[in-house]
Write a structure and sequence with these properties.
heterodimer; A: 107 residues; mainly beta; four-stranded antiparallel sheet; 0% helix; B: mainly beta; globular
Chain lengths: 107, 120
Amino acid sequence: IVLTQSPGSLSLSPGERATLSCRASQTVNSNYLAWYQQKPGQAPRLLIYGAFSRATGIPDRFSGSGSGTDFTLTISRLEPEDFAVYYCQQYGSSPYTFGQGTKLEIK
Amino acid sequence: QVALKESGPALVKPTQTLTLTCTFSGFSLSTSGMRVSWIRQPPGKALEWLARIDWDDDKFYSTSLKTRLTISKDTSKNQVVLTLTNVDPVDTATYYCVRMARREDYFDYWGQGTLVTVSS
């Protein structure tokens, strides 16, 4: 399954709302879709699994939604530490695949 | 607490075999449901899943790299080993060892990664 993320980059200010999209080439089984955050020089960190469940310790400003082939990660009010690259990943079908990432930049 | 750490050569010559070791703590790969994967990321590019090994020694590989990859485990040492044969400069990447959630196939704990450069 090919995952296409949009936009490729997004320039916003702290306090604004960010909406990131992930579209799958086929239906993601059981909505097995995860989101990860990656900061420069660091490993990715799990944010969301099962399309909308927040991982342990993830602030509630992060929320996931969607089903089938269209999924969204929303950050309700951006904090300075949220500027990073975000990846979606599907794990409903083998092999697991990742999107190409959305870079969230400070405006 | 769960921790994973990758180790291996930083530089490998083309056509050689790359061997990476993941040493982990905070869980056991002999526990039912536990799985560990390897994922790589070329500089400035996206993530690519490579291989997975399960608590019962089941193994799964990326379709495109299946013929070149081998994953194994040493439960007594809490280690997982990945080998990649016949490396090429396109294999230059940061390689991550990652634990998988027990009931679903997402990646919940990541190692810090190790950068491997393939160059003569």
